[in-house]
C-alpha cells in the first residue's frame, strides 16, 4: 500500500512538474510582450511551482530509503523536510516576486501596455493545463480519502503525505492566480489604469503567501512529531483492551515517522498471574496481531507497567485528559 501510494504521488508530481515548466516559459514571454505586472507575477508563480515539484520529487526519492544504523526508524520524515522547503520556495520565489512586481507597477508603472493578445492566449492555455494537473491531484486525494473512509476536507487536514496536498494547493492557487491576472490585464486594457494590474499582482502575492503558510504549518507539525490518525489510535487501543493478558491500557503513544509509517509505544498492565515467559510470548503475539491488522504500524513497543504508578498516571492525564485514564 505504501509503494502504491508513493507511485501515485510521484505521478502526480511529475504531471505538475512538466506542466509548470511549460507554463512558466509561456507566462514569462507573455509578460514581457504585454508589459503586464500580473502576468510577470504569474511567471514567477510558475517558476516557484516548478522548484516546488523538483523538491517534492527529491522528497519522494529520499524518503523511501530503508532504515540503517544512523536512522533506525528510516528516512520517512525526509518527505516532510523537503516539502517544508517547497512551501518556503512558494513564498520566496512566488509571493515575494509578485509583491515586488505589484509594488513596481503601482509606484513606477505607466498606463502604456504592449499587445495583450499573447497574454490572453497564454492565460487560457495555462488555465487548461493547470486544470489537468489539479484534476490529477484531486483523483489521488479522492481515492485515498475513500480508502480511509473519510471526507476530502478531513483527509487534507490530517494527511501524512504532504506531496499530494502540496500539488493540490499549488494548482488550486495557480488557477485562482490566472483568474486574478486575467482580471488585472483586462481592467488595465479597459480603463488604461495600471492600478488594476498592480493590485492583481499584489493579490497573487497574498494568495501565494497564504498557500505557503498552510503548507508550512502542515509540514512543521509532521516534522515535530504528530500523533497518528485518531481513528487508528482508538482502534489500536481497543485491540489492546481485548487481549486476554491485558488488564489495563495505561498509556498509548504514537508518532508518524513517515507516510503510512507509525511508531507505537503501549504501556500495559498485564495479568499478574503471568510468568516471565508467558509475558514475553504475549507481547510477541500481540505485536504480530497488531501489525497484521494495521499495516501502517512500522515499529511496536509494548512495555509492562503497573496501573498504580502515580507519576505515569499524571503524565497521561496531562497529555490526554481524564477520558484516556482507566481506573
Automatic annotation (TrEMBL):
Membrane topology: Multi-pass membrane protein
SUPFAM superfamilies found in the cross-reference section: Cation efflux protein transmembrane domain-like
GO biological process: zinc ion transport
Keywords for this protein: Membrane, Transmembrane, Transmembrane helix, Transport
GO cellular component entries: membrane
Signal sequence extent: none
Localization, UniProt: Membrane
Entry's Gene Ontology molecular function annotations: monoatomic cation transmembrane transporter activity
Broad class of where this protein is predominantly found: membrane
InterPro entries: Cation_efflux (IPR002524), Cation_efflux_TM (IPR058533), Cation_efflux_TMD_sf (IPR027469), SLC30A9 (IPR040177)
Pfam families xref list: Cation_efflux (PF01545)
Transmembrane segments: 12-33, 80-100, 120-139, 167-188, 194-216
Cation efflux protein transmembrane domain residues: 13-223
NCBIfam families per the UniProt record, alphabetical: CDF
PANTHER family on file: HUEL-CATION TRANSPORTER (PTHR13414), PROTON-COUPLED ZINC ANTIPORTER SLC30A9, MITOCHONDRIAL (PTHR13414:SF9)
Full protein name: Cation diffusion facilitator family transporter
Lineage per the UniProt record: Bacteria, Bacillati, Actinomycetota, Actinomycetes, Pseudonocardiales
